[in-house]
Amino acid sequence: MLLSRSTQSNRAPGGYLTPFDPARWDSAREVLGDRAMPVLAEEVGRQAAVIAYNNDFALVLGVAVIVLPLLALFRKPRRVPA
Prior knowledge:
Layout lengths: L1 H10 L10 H11 L3 H32 L15
């Protein structure tokens, strides 16, 4: 669930690739032709997924760093002689 949310938030176009910049879209159409929009959408999605995996890994690492020292507080229960 966290990965899908992070991917969706990272998929939103940033300042570099906007639909309101005709010069950039024209240059993309020159290079890619009619496939410009699907190719760029796929690339943005791919990069969003990589950013989402990176963010989730950092979160899991942070939780592990906090939780692992707590393992030192656990000890085996004493056996009661029968």
